[in-house]
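Consortium newsletter contribution from the modelling node. Members have asked for a concrete example of what our holo predictions look like. Here is one, prepared for the FNR complex that several groups have been discussing at recent meetings.
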Amino acid sequence: MTITCVEDFRQVYRSRVPRMFYDYAESGSYTESTFRQNESDFQRLNIRQRVGVDIRNITTLTEMAGESVNLPLAFAPVGMLGIQNIGGEIKVAKAAQKFGVPFILSTMSIASVEEVAEATSAPFWFQLYVVKDRDFVREMIHRAKAAGCSRLVITMDLSMLGQRHRDLKNKLSIRPNLKNLVNIATKPRWAYEFATGPAVSFGNVVGHAKGVDDLASLLTWAAEMVDPALDWDDVEWIRREWDGPVILKGILDVEDARIAADMGIETIVVSNHGGRQLDGAGSSISWLPRIADAVSDRVELLLDSGVRSGMDIFRARAMGASGVLLGRAMVYALGAMGQEGVEILLSILDKELRTTMGLAGKTQLDDISPKDVYWTD
Ligand code: FNR
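And here is the predicted structure:
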């Protein structure tokens, strides 16, 4: 198949990766209404077509969280990338480095922060889950610092787990049961890479968190460690420990954005975790303009959840985000075709964004404003 868009990657990804890992990515919590709305609300935001502008010199260079980027996007932190495609974190980090966009490593990655640092030369960002074991959190912050990570992304919207029915039904695990094994037998390419590649584990956690020395103990740890106590005082503590720029991810309300601004947080990610947490929450793109009205003079806004094209990146810029994070679009490309897939994805998004800018009469990202889009029902 000739890949021309993100949806093509999704279809190839679906055919190549075991069903339980596809379902893990391609699902939202409970009824999945927020998961679907994230994408459909982007479609409701129309772009104004403008003509008669010299559009020979289009540039997508800009800054995100104070770093220069060639495209206004970063790869979102996604757990278990290294199982969607063996060595996944390192492959995405390398593609990101090649294109000059940030890669954000999840706490729940297969490759450890040290392994990713070893395999790359550009600094990447680290996403922190604030778990109950604060000694582990402190150590993780310092490991990310020592590995040269340039930004710390604190995930704020996972103080409880949004239930995903498919994961329960599939008995999601990195140790497959018989039913999952039967499905894996239909994915020979993935099975071969899995069988011949390095052992799969959670690199940041196993051997570092208390009492976690193998996979079985890790799964119990992960379920028990989600911390319902996470509050703004913890954010202050983490900032002190990190002693550098932090980004708060998972802000979806004007009041919370104001609290972050009052604390002097530089950057927030307007996000509902891709519809995986609070089912019934509004889409990220529908909240973005309200949050921008309230705090954009004090805080830089990024956006994720539902971004599937360069047109969506244009829409997010118009509504007040300086850039977007890509979750599933990256998973589809990686699962479909490994590092090459992620590189093709970046070229596709680059072209889509440039074409959209040109046909909307823009040569600079800074020229895009709320006047360039309008909502339809
Ligand atoms: C995620 N997300 C996520 N976020 C985070 O802070 N830490 C994590 O480990 C994960 N893991 C994760 C796994 C999978 C499979 C998905 C799909 C998502 C959320 C992610 O960073 C981002 O917020 C969403 O993916 C954005 O929505 P889209 O782009 O997937 O629609």
